[in-house]
Amino acid sequence: MHSVFKKYIFTTFVAIAALASSYMAIYSYFDYIGLNTLQKPFQMLYEYQNKKARLSDASVVFVGDSSLGNAIDADYFSQLSGYDTGNFALTGKFGYLGSLKMIKSIDSKNLKTVFVFQTTDMMTRDIALDYNTIRLFKSSNFSGINLSIFNISTFDLFMQQIDALFHGKPIYRISIENDYIKQGARLENLDNYDVLRPEKIVKDKTHYLKDIAQYCFENNLQCVYVHGPVAAKICNGSPLYFEQAAKNIAETHIPLEASTPLCIPPEELGDSIDHVAPQYKKKYTKKYYDLLKSYL
Amino acid sequence: MVGIILFFYLVLMLFNSSLFIFVFLPVCLTGFYFFKKQTNKTWVLWLNLCSIVFYGYWSLTHLSILILSVTLNYFLARSMRRFGKLALAMGIIFNLSLLGYFKYSNFLIEQINFGFGTNLDLIKIVLPIGISFFTFQQIAYLADLYKRKAETASYNRYLFFISFFPQLIAGPIVHHEEIFKQLKKRRHFLKGLAIGFSFFCIGLFKKVVIADHVALTANEVFGYAEAGGAPTFLEAWYGALAYTLQIYFDFSAYSDMAIGLAYMFGLRLPQNFSSPYKATSIVDFWRRWHITLSRFLKDYLYIPLGGNRKGHIRKYINVIITMLIGGFWHGASWNFVLWGGLHGVFLFINQWSNDTFKVKSPKIVGWSLTFLLVVFAWVPFRATNIEGFLGIWKGMIFMNGVTLPESMSILNLSKGTLLPSVNTDMGLTIAVLLLICYFLPNTSEIFRKHNVTLSTKGYSHTMDKSKYINWRPTFLWSMLIVFMFTISILKLNNPSDFLYFQF
Predict the structure, then answer these.
(1) Do B191 and A1 lie within an 8 Å CB cutoff?
(2) Cis check: omega of the bond before B420, within 30 degrees of 0
């Protein structure tokens, strides 16, 4: 009788261990050969920006998401303002928490001003998850076995990668161009994009914004919230949303640069409704410099 | 409405968290394996230590409250023979005061402010997790000791009875007799581990994959109504049904996990849910839903009030009072009292019609009506404000109109935009889950041959003799459990809290 249960336990735990080991092994191999390792999305970007932040001497920094990454050229902003400027944009998935972590990563003793530059619909997105990666056996030659891969979103992407490999089209890591993720094909059709509505704002979304405000206060930093640019259709069609978002931001005590964002006309749009096309990055940098110079 | 009561969810060691599953549990089991060969005292001591670490991981302050409560109750129990009624009275006063202070003091302040127009400050309180459960257990023990229906125990055993971590923070509310009797029995480690782990995995799957999935719709619809929105017919029913399923799968999942964990250590806990949505009357529902709470309320509140021994009218009054208090136990808020009151009225009507007409309705009629009433009553239970539950109730009875998806065209009913999670996929999910609740056996029934749970006299227990779904230690079941475990672990990225932790 006991041998039956013993066999059952053995089979069950060996199967679990085998599945887990296989998954980790294949995953680590993908990582090693340069495929998109399907760690939590944009892990590479996070590590790129994090490294920059830790080495930064900037007195003015921008943190936020892809709307920032595509809109602000830090070097050009430095030229215009005369202040050493850094752009440590992540993506929308990181949310305000990502921005907070990025601010905390900045090691610059000269840091005075932080612009929290987020995409206009950030308030409608779920509160971000943390991005601590637990790695075993990390060394100078090996990035380690990532224990944080055991989550459903990573597993989904892992399966997509397997599928892509079978079709001869492996998905490689994102490439950095012009200090941010290289853009894809231009967005032509905005029909699937609805205007922003106040009822879509996530309850308690400003939780980490309040933490940012607290951090800025404690470290004597001037922090300013800036809406990223967005396609004109969204920009002009969402007045109630921006009104509500402004109220929510006001409660966090972070000053808001303007309650409405810069509108991107169709010809200047990049690969997403909140991405400026690469050739217009300097133009929008100048626009934002004009808007923000009073804070410098 | 609830006041400033803060929950430190992020540091609570939940059953559905990697820390618990991969660190805490293996350590406890390993220690238990070695200590069970020693005396009973040794492994009980080891598990007490595990339980202290489990609770203390969340908050050392509240661990000290738990230890203080257990210790004081222990000494009152020991002095029962000498001081009798005085010890019992002191015990009840102490336990209810502790519960009252942590759980209801801000509610009281709010009512005073509302009633008298005062502006008293609320107290910053953190509710000790599980206080409603361990308070009730200790009151029951003292009451039974007084009536000479219980035996005194050593501090080690008493602490175990109250603090054993599988049932500490959200039940089942175990009876002292159920635990003390088992402490002397032999433990079959491998059998316990095999069955207990499988039972646990099924519970984990129910929580992480099923309950958390339907919660998305429930949260969206209720959130919309609470913010002043007017859910239309489909939206309201989606929300209500999603929550009906969420609370069942969430709470029964916790009970399953608690039962599975306890069984890994060779202990059987009482069954807490016996397919409640199969109930054919409200009386039947309460023999199937949160059985251990029903039992407690019946034995320590309803019967002392007089039960059914003082005529029909008094019986009905006692039922309503019991349910009102039962509702209030769930939370310091009028919506829980409303929920309890509704069930009190339902029970009264059920009992009155049984007493008056003595005719049984066809099962399908009884089931339909019962299910409908239960779904309606869950709405105020879930809503955090009056706008929320009124909005959804109105939606359920057509008062907010009917909006169909653009793809449908029936008569002149309005087409429009529904809330995103009110879609075909979720509709199918809800339908499938309802069928599962009605047609498939519950977890205890799946393990029926191994008698994993304790039955409660007078309450429903694993009656369904399922031919096809019986757990056995076979390769097929092993792979099914591996599948459930694997999917659940992948979904553990962001541990969500069990609904009944706030009680």
Answers:
(1) yes
(2) no
Q: What is the pLDDT of residue B416?
A: 67
CB contact under 8 A, A151 and B492: yes
> What pLDDT digit, counting tens, does each position of B407-458 carry?
655 555 556 678 878 888 899 999 999 999 999 999 999 998 888 998 887 7
Q: What are the residue boundaries of the structural domains of chain A, listed by start? A: 2-39+132-166, 43-131+176-295
**Which residue in the set A12, A19, A199 is minimally distant from B227, CB to CB?**
A199
Contact A199 B224 (CB under 8 A): yes
Give alpha helix (H) positions in B230-362.
233-264, 282-285, 291-297, 312-330, 334-357
**Sign of the C-alpha dihedral computed for residues A265, A269, A274 and A279 taken in this order:** negative
Using CB atoms, pick whichever of A5, A153, A199 lies closest to residue B473: A5
Is A87 in a helix, a strand, or coil? strand
- Is B450 an annotated catalytic residue? no
Confidence category of residue B2, pLDDT binned at 50, 70, 90: very low
Give me A183's structure tokens: 């853009």
Amino acid found at B468 = Y
Given an 8 Å threshold on Cβ–Cβ distance, is B481 in contact with A1?
no
Structural domain spans, chain B: 9-187, 191-502
Q: How many residues does chain A have?
A: 296
Chain A touched by B230 (CB under 8 Å)? no
Find the mean pLDDT for residues B497-502.
49
**A and B: number of Cβ contacts within 8 A:** 59
What confidence score (pLDDT) does residue B415 get?
63
- B417 reaches A (C-beta below 8 A): no
DSSP conformation letters of A89-100: E--GGGHHHHHH
Write the DSSP assignment of B388-443 as a string of letters: HHHHHHHHHTTTT--EE-TT---TTPEE-PPPTTSSHHHHHHHHHHHHHHHHS--H
Structure tokens at A66: 């892809």
Task: Answer whether B30 touches A (CB < 8 Å).
Answer: no
Residues of chain A positioned with their CB less than 8 A from the CB of B29: none
Query: What is the complex's ipTM, to 2 decimals?
Result: 0.84
The third-level CATH classification (topology) of the domain covering A43-131+176-295 is Rossmann fold (3.40.50)
> pLDDT by residue (tens digit) across B259-278?
999 999 999 999 999 999 99
Say if B6 is an interface residue toward chain A (CB within 8 Å).
no
Which chain B residues are Cβ-neighbours of A9 within 8 angstroms?
190, 193-194, 197
Could you say which of A1, A6, A8 has the minimum Cβ distance to residue B478?
A8
pLDDT at B7: 35
User: Residue B300 gets which letter from DSSP?
Assistant: I
* Rg of chain A (C-alpha set): 22
Q: What is the pLDDT of residues B302-315, one digit of tens each?
A: 999 988 888 889 99
How confident is the model at residue B401, as a pLDDT?
85
Do the Cβ atoms of B223 and A8 come within 8 Å?
no
What CA–CA distance (Å, rounded) separates A115 from A257? 9
Catalytic residue of the set B62, B176, B330, B343: B330
Tell me, what's the pLDDT at A138? 61
